[in-house]
Protein 1
Amino acid sequence: MTGGTRILVLGAGAIGLSTALVLRRRGWDVTILAERFAPRVTSSVAGALWEWPPGVCGKHVDLERARRWAADSLIHFTELAADPAAGVHLRPVTFYFRHDLTNDAFQREKMAGLAKRTEAFRHDAALIRENGVVGDFVDAYRHVAPMIDTDAYLAWLTAHVRDAGCEVISRRVEEPLEAIAPRLLRDLNAAAIVNCTGFGSRELAADPAVYPLRGAVLRVVNDGVRRPRIEAAHCVSHDGVSRDPGFVFIVPRGRDRLLIGGFAEPNETDLAFGPEHPQVRAMLARSVAFLPALEGAEIDAVEPLRAGLRPARERGTRLEWDARLPVLHNYGHGGSGLTYSWGCAEDAARILESPEGALRWTN
């Protein structure tokens, strides 16, 4: 790499910020250009539970690559858990199933990956009774996973990006990259662009495979004052068959809140709804029926609900060079943005520093 070479990162969600920080730490000059910053980014809405792919939401076309990204991110988040300011907590999570996993080759392989990488892995149907959940479940497994308080984490990440010397510019990019990339590179004295614009890539990268996956989480008081604090996460993935877009997602957030979700509605973009929305009422009822300990839980009076659009893509995450431009795309993470963030950032840096990358940004 030539000293002083500048990379322009588009987007300031978890993907963009972690990519910028990794590049800066590896010696690149970095400019971040974004229209929105936390808390006005999708990453602020995310449930932010680290998951071993495939996760709940989004396409996983290249599962091997996705798992490498998740494994890299797990290492980073585990290290960050030692810093209280980072907002990363290591807590148990249990996943519940309506069939026996010992007869499911895919789930056996997935559990082997989890057992190898996570702490306190346990595959045991007795977890159903022990955790007090209700339903027609016959199997379960539990492990320790990072759960990220996105408010604290994005503030931490933004501060570290600035402290590392990244230039941060607030500006909307309205034209497709094919038209505007040469001008951006010239005006900002950059050699290449890393496109981390999430759902915005549908227009910026002219990629019709990108689509919104609407979701929301209720925020519940979890301070241990009026009722016992829930210290672990509980999840039931969508069965892949039902037309109901709902699933169970109960995750502690920070030190005194609990997130209740969720649902995933493709190609729905309206975010002007509140706790009385039918899908929100249904997910709360579903969660209380599943975990009766939630009965009568106090909804956060200040911020009861967060809603957002997961940036999904039909062909899965895109981390590759544009065919015509010195633009490295890094988008389409669906509901796995936090899970993939550090792994994709490291991969982006490796691609930029590869021989092919050098040809791209020196021409």
Protein 2
Amino acid sequence: MVEEVSIIYMVAGMSSRFGGKIKQFAQVGPNNETLMEVSIQQAIKAGVKKIIFVVGEKTEIPFKEKFGKNGAKYKGVPVFYAKQTFDPLSRDKPWGTVDALVAAKDVISGPFIVCNGDDLYGEKAFKQAVDFLQSKTGECVAVGYELGRVIPEQGKTNRGMFKTDQNHFITNITEVFDIEKDKLSEKGLKADTLCSMNLFGLKGEVVWMLSDSLAHFQSAHKGDRKAECLLPNELSNLIKEKKIKMKLLRTQDTWLGVTNPGDEEVVRKSLETLK
């Protein structure tokens, strides 16, 4: 029997750069669908059978008002929630993306895709992850995008860069900072180099490994109000420790993201041309 695949959206934070609004609710679809709805519809078409939102203090109520409470269905697919919290007496912010994922460990019951809630990855990219997780290899997967297609025309950005062996299994994920489109060679990069946009397909048991990773990280950074335990870093550590194997798949799908006010108009026009 083929295991059903869940999708976990990390939507706990509010965006200061987006005017303190919920970016996922920016209307970008042809019928004014929100960015979140467009992404979920892509995931459902790709074969996802369960939706999990990792919400925070400020996003929990709006998401439940939009998509219903635990167990409600969106387009026939059940929706569940997990909440990422932190202690404001000792922290300025939550403990990062590993903390967000680990918050959902009790509602994860099999293989799952984990991704950002304010990015659009494309139906084909989701399908690649779903199909791989259902292929019974027992391995994890990352869907990589060509760097030249996911960096801004102007300005700088950071991206997680993959290193792989000859069989396309990932050996390392390294964060490269201040990437500029016209200066890729200065950092030893090429436009067709694959990078991470935080789209990973993981086996259910990996969340418990990451729970241990988080505990070690928190212990090592005790008293630090800002340190974040980041998913690409910890997955890279699990790979190096040979606790997981992760295949890298190249996607030709189009990634779209909303970062700043006005980006939703760019995304809306791009979705129109992709139809």
Protein 3
Amino acid sequence: MLTLAGFRPRSSNEDQDSEMPNIDDLWDYQPLVRRPGKGTVETEPAEDAWPAHSSAQSPAPTPVPHDTRVFIAPPVVAPPVTPRSIATSVGARSRAILRRGHTLSYVGLFLFTLVLYFRPYELFSALSSLDKLAYWLAIATIAVFIPSQLALEGNLTAFPRSVKLVLFITLAGLLSMITAINKQEAWAEFNDVFIKAVLMFIVMVNVVRTERRLTLLLYVTLAVTFLLSFNALSDYRTGNFTVEGYRIKGLLGGMFGNPNDLALHFVTMAPLALTMMVISRRLIVKIVFLITTILIVAGNVVTYSRGGFLGLMVTALVLAWKLGRHHRAMLAIVGPVVLVAFMVLAPGNYGRRLLSIFVPGLDTMGSASSRQEILNRSIIVSLRNPITGIGMGNFHTVSLRETVTHNAFTQISAEMGIAALIAYMMFLTGPIMRLRRIERNTMESPPDRRYYYQSIGLQASLVGYMVSAFFAAVAYQWYAYYLVAFAVCLSRMYDSDHAHEASQKVRPS
């Protein structure tokens, strides 16, 4: 029996076996077997592509010499092209559906995140002996993740651009130790903080591959933010000012102890709380997220952080511009009114502290002028040490009064070099570009409502981080790595979902 090259007979149960279960009901996605050919999708001819000749309908064909037989393939009719099919075909051609797995790795990641943010050994004195719990959870998670990833994907990690950039920054950190002023301090900064953030970032990118997993991690981060903002307001109300005589301190230590770092965290969480409120369908959940958003904004104010205020204003502008795209003229009128009301309702001396951004003499503590001097010094150090910097955690040795840079970007350039700064900027801005693509593709798609709002919320959070990080030395802390990981995971899930849709469309019914 002669067959046309490239076509294969269809088995009676092939269509049934190739059907995929509803991925919305699973924690993980089913694998998609790539079709042969780069950038193509294999299709099969329709059942009536070749006319069937039976003896009852027509006489047997006259034998033809072997060397004169000619076969002409019938034209393959392509499916109709629509804007939706164009958008989804990108994922079908270049992405594979995320495979099932990493359940144990995710459990470890979830527990690590819970301990990292809530720091139970600080909340409860009885648990003070567990101050290394996060460290051991990270070790256990990585120990489970590595063999699972090798068995599942055949590699140590997926390699989206963000992973490549963070690995380059890690290499820059290692190279900075060669020329570091104090090599022990450089190693301590690398080993105690930075490398943990990098490793768990890579774990998160590979493990968080379903909506449920991402949502649970967001719930953890928003829950601790609720607790921190509530405590900030409580301390302000009771006059518990432990910083500079008029500023509150975070309930938890680590990256929440300093009021400026606490304000930066509030800036990054406010857009996520607001978009989770919009996405939620249950009224009680909406109310909880609305209260959380209000508490976060109020908690930001009582930190008296100027960088926190600027970050909050920028995130508000991003959210207003994107969510109110059909009412921008009205927003241009309402926005200034809301800002004036905000300043009127703000606590005493808040406006004076904000004005010190432009008039340093209004700052009675002199921190504004001091930070300007430190910024200038960090830029000079960066220009004098452009290749590998002066070593991670070493800036205080050349700074004024042993202070840090108070700027995440010059912290990177001064301590690790200009190339590391460029990579860090790309690490922060790259996910925003991908989130904008998701936003555009889902703007008019009700089934993708969650992707639409989460992409906007994460964009605002990342922009807010970049603004507030200009006033805080937090380049090695967890803030950015969790945000970027959330963005990368959302992008991978979006591509996977639409690759699944496209694969179903190209299969004959």
Protein 4
Amino acid sequence: MSSQNGHPDWRALYPFESRFLDRNGLQYHYLDEYTGPADRNDVPAVVMVHGNPTWSFYFRELIKALRPTHRCIAPDHIGCGLSDKPPVEKYDYRLRSRIDDLDALLDHLMLDRGITLVVHDWGGMIGMGAALRRPERIERLVITNTAAFLPADGFKLPWMLTFLHQESALTRFAVQRLNLFARGAAWTASAQGLPRAVKRGLAAPYNSYENRLATRLFVEDIPMSPDHPSYSTARWVDENLHRLADRPALILWGLRDYVFDARFLEEWTRRFPTAEIHAWEDAGHFALENQGQLSNRLITDFSIR
């Protein structure tokens, strides 16, 4: 499939069947891909949890690599991807609600054991939060440019995120009217640059003022102080993360990440000292894009051990 200007259409990169779970009247989109010969309920599941401002499109190549042997589950958080994008009157866009949604999806799919959990960006806090509610579900962890712990004392957000973290008319204009966050991430979060169709695919769901609400509120929901509405939830995840430390863990990290930098990698290493670690100097925040073939092979090998 090609677009009118001759470039590949991003939809050709995402050849999956859309599925939906009703969440209090909202449609929560997810993928459930498996192409092997066995019954999908009898094969190991890999659950992939995205962050902001991406969506399940970010995991498209990993899904293609794994679906012959694994059941690949990749949801889009409410307000993101192909999920509904409601106003704040219908959904609060808080961390606890994100964890509730993922927890409900795992229940709906009856995934109660053997999960390999893949987390990226703010998907780390969401995914680990859901995992900690029922740790017996989780067999392995794949961690890539993310966090599931509170920032260290003295940590400051990069200036752009500091600006976007503020609740103001200016940030609403920048994120929702100009789409600076989604466009900026697609253009700058990869150290090696991305094909045009991939950039378009990453930003495609955020194509109107209303559809960019989640990209703004995700940033505002970063709990930088104890008085933040999501701080207690994030603190609970932080304080209980050790309950997953005995799981085999694979850490894949792009070192050219201006948000989740080497300090975050060091903290993951401290908390998961037996993890297998691959850190790349020539990869950025979108490490799975920069190191696609290698990361797919590493995750595939890891998930069948």
